[in-house]
Design goal:
Largest sheet of chain A: none
Mean pLDDT of chain A: 89
Oligomer: heterodimer
Low-confidence stretches of chain B: none
Number of helices of chain B: 8
Largest interface: A-B, 81 and 79 residues
Helix content of chain B: over 70%
Number of strands of chain A: 0
Distance between the termini of chain B: 32 Å
Strand content of chain B: under 5%
Radius of gyration of chain A: 19 Å
Shape of chain A: globular
Number of strands of chain B: 0
Number of domains of chain A: 2
């Protein structure tokens, strides 16, 4: 039952794809082939990320993380979060367990937000592709607009979420296995 | 290329860790597996949903919705369609290239790309599980609103 509940989203999606096959066979095959290629991509991307997270969890002392990315880490912490987020691969939902692991190690909330923001928009490995397919101007403009947006979003969210709400998020992180 | 870097980094650090302390290395691998196991079912669900969404919304359909002449209406539609789910950049950008070839406008494409990578209604349950309701709603709404700013500026500069 527990396993069933865990896979409920997948089961619903799989049933919907079955329905899609009944309505339009071509679309059904297209869905399956997209799922195949993205699964392959994910299976390739995930192992090193989780191995690195595991190593960080065991080897990097909380104090070190706090010093570089926690309260009082200042601009260095922000820059580090930005670099880690921009360099890593994977869709935004891969950053969620990474953020949880960082929160457990005492990384500051604003740095968590910068990490999430950078992870979603400033992917260094994709910039070259973006400029060849959409044009250098497009890529540079998007980057120039999105970096301040990440910072503004971080600022707004730290202002709107109250201290006790942020504390609750950190408490929740402690209970996650991710 | 990026995978090679990530794998080399993981392997080198893992080897280093192994030489220094075998039990700690074992412990870290156990943790890695546990986190992976924890997120895998949801991720599989997400991937399946994305596959479904992409099959229904073909590039031709999306290009029509967010065509170069569609103006701000197209920007809004692009942002809404992009919000359905979160897509990794390595899927989003090749897709954007196809859309551009099919006649999508750059301003509309910017809104679509922004929400595609930042706003995910289908991934909300997962985000709520990790960060709570208020955080998830706030982040997604802010990202949605800001996608219009991105579209506006790209429309002015590039479009």
């Amino acid at each position: 039952m527990k396993t069933f509940k865990k896979y409920i989203i997948f089961i619903i999606a799989a049933i919907l794809i079955g329905v899609l096959f009944l309505i339009n066979k071509d679309m059904g095959f297209k869905a399956v082939s997209t799922i195949k290629s993205s699964s392959k991509e994910m299976i390739l991307i995930l192992p090193p990320i989780f191995i690195l997270l595991g190593l960080m969890d065991v080897w990097v002392p909380r104090d070190t993380m706090v010093k570089f990315m926690g309260e009082g880490s200042g601009i260095i912490g922000g820059i580090l979060s930005f670099i880690i987020g921009s360099a890593a691969a994977g869709p935004l939902y891969v950053v969620f367990p990474v953020a949880i692991a960082f929160m457990k190690k005492g990384v500051k909330f604003s740095n968590i937000l910068i990490l999430i923001g950078a992870w979603s928009t400033t992917k260094i490995p994709m910039l070259l592709f973006e400029s060849t397919s959409l044009g250098l101007n497009f890529m540079l403009t998007r980057l120039a607009v999105n970096i301040p947006i990440i910072l503004i979003m971080t600022f707004v969210m730290t202002k709107i979420l109250k201290d006790d709400e942020i504390a609750a998020i950190y408490e929740g992180a402690k209970e996650q296995e991710g | 290329m990026q995978n090679i870097i990530m794998y080399s980094l993981a392997v080198i650090l893992l080897a280093l860790s192994f030489f220094k302390d075998k039990t700690k290395t074992k412990q870290s691998l156990k943790k890695a597996w546990k986190s992976f196991e924890n997120i895998f079912p949801q991720m599989l669900g997400m991937i399946t949903f994305i596959g479904l969404a992409l099959a229904i919304l073909s590039p031709e359909t999306i290009s029509k919705i967010i065509g170069g002449a569609s103006g701000w209406f197209g920007v809004v539609l692009g942002a809404v369609v992009g919000s359905v789910t979160l897509i990794p950049a390595f899927v989003a950008f090749p897709m954007a290239a196809i859309l551009l070839e099919n006649g999508a406008g750059k301003m509309q494409l910017a809104a679509f790309l922004s929400t595609l990578t930042m706003v995910g209604v289908l991934t909300m349950p997962m985000e709520i599980k990790f960060f709570g309701k208020k955080f998830a709603f706030l982040r997604n709404i802010l990202a949605f609103v800001f996608s219009f700013l991105t579209a506006f500026i790209i429309g002015k500069v590039v479009g």
